[in-house]
Design brief:
With 276 residues, this protein is an alpha+beta fold. It is built from 5 helices and 16 strands. The chain has a 7-stranded mixed sheet, sandwiched between helices. The chain has a 5-stranded antiparallel sheet with strand order 15-14-13-12-16, with no helix packed on it. A two-stranded antiparallel sheet has the order 3-4. A hairpin with a 5-residue loop joins β12 and β13 (238-246). The longest helix has 25 residues, at 171-195. The mean pLDDT is 91. The structure holds biotinyl-5-AMP. Biotinyl-5-AMP is lined by residues 21-23, 46, 49-53, 55, 57-59, 64, 66, 68, 113-114, 121, 124-126, 139-141, 143, 152-153, 156.
């Protein structure tokens, strides 16, 4: 499918009829040629989508948007320790885009990268740093029209299942345009925060020079905070506690037990324990 609306927001949209993984495509392209920031690879037929930690992102052909966006944090002097915000910013952009499409439902961000409608996953984000260390490919999957009997896992949902019509097959373009619009806006604020640029004022996020705008906005959308959670850590161990807040790098701080001990988690899988 073509993405005429999204093309007005990105610097370039490479629309593919079908591909294995839009992240792989963009990583390969960006390694081969000099691409502008906000170059996008998008399709609604992704056949070998990747999730985090070697997992798969699965959707029947033509029912889910896969989009990867190139950003260059280093061009804006974003230090490496702040790169943790990038998937969170993408998740927040998707949360806002989905909220606009389903205003009557509860849309939240589950740390670090899932967008949930009423607790069910409609979108996931996978960010990958390019070998040059300068660029990041931010990939997002968004379930558009997957019917109930074709959901890949029982914890998934789609926009259509929440009442969003796919008028003339344009939902993918509409959703991508909404997402890219939010992502560009948040990116401008994020990079201005890094530069301490007092000239950038966002109507919702306030003055970038005050700092904390992105952290406050992500925290507001993040339904993990305040919850009793179990964290499955990449080393195979687990930790239970209360998710308290996000630190200056976007890591999740968890309070454990009653003696005020905290643990900071940079990567891991969170289970909101009330869903168990
Ligand atoms: C993610 O990983 O959620 C990141 C998914 C990123 C996909 C995009 S699509 C464009 C770009 N190109 C790629 O190749 N990837 C990116 P993770 O947090 O690891 O979640 C994966 C888990 O979500 C799976 O193990 C399933 O349990 C579940 N899952 C798989 N497909 C799903 C779907 N369509 N909807 C909801 N949940 C799904």
């Amino acid at each position: 499918m073509e993405f005429p609306l999204a093309t007005t927001i990105a610097n370039r949209v490479i629309a593919l009829d079908e591909t294995y993984s839009t992240n792989d495509d963009l990583v390969e392209l960006a390694s081969a040629e000099q691409l502008q920031e906000f170059t996008v690879v998008a399709t609604i037929n992704q056949t070998a989508g990747r999730g985090r930690l070697g997992r798969a992102w699965v959707a029947p052909s033509g029912t889910s948007l896969a989009a990867s966006v190139l950003v260059r944090p280093q061009d804006a002097s974003v230090p490496l320790e702040r790169y943790g915000w990038i998937p969170l910013i993408a998740g927040l952009a998707m949360t806002r885009a989905v909220r606009r499409l389903v205003p009557e439902h509860r849309v939240t961000l589950k740390w670090p990268n899932d967008v949930l409608i009423n607790g069910l996953k409609v979108s996931g984000v996978l960010s990958e740093l390019l070998p040059d260390g300068r660029s990041v490919v931010v990939g997002a999957g968004l379930n558009l029209t997957i019917p109930a009997d074709a959901l890949p896992v029982p914890t998934a949902t789609s926009l259509a299942l929440n009442g969003v019509p796919d008028a003339a097959g344009s939902l993918g373009d509409l959703a991508l345009a909404a997402y890219l619009g939010e992502l560009r806006r948040l990116w401008t604020v994020f990079t201005a925060e890094e530069l301490g640029d007092a000239g950038v004022v966002d109507e919702e996020l306030g003055n970038a020079a005050d700092g904390g705008g992105i952290r406050a906005a992500v925290s507001e959308a993040c339904s993990t905070l305040g919850q009793s959670v179990r964290v499955d850590l990449p080393d195979g161990t687990e930790q239970k506690g209360i998710a308290m807040d996000l630190d200056e790098s976007g890591r999740l701080r968890i309070s454990i037990g009653s003696n005020g001990r905290t643990q900071t988690v940079a990567a891991g899988d969170i289970t909101h324990l009330r869903y168990e």
